[in-house]
Amino acid sequence: MEPVHDRFPEPPYYAVIFTSHRTEDDNDYQATAERMLELAAEQPGFLGVDSAREGPELGITVSYWRDEDSIAGWRAHAEHTLARRSGRRQWYEAFEVHVARVERNYGFRRQ
Question: Cys-Cys with 18: which of 3, 22, 61, 107 at CB 3.0–4.6 Å?
Answer without folding.
Answer: 61
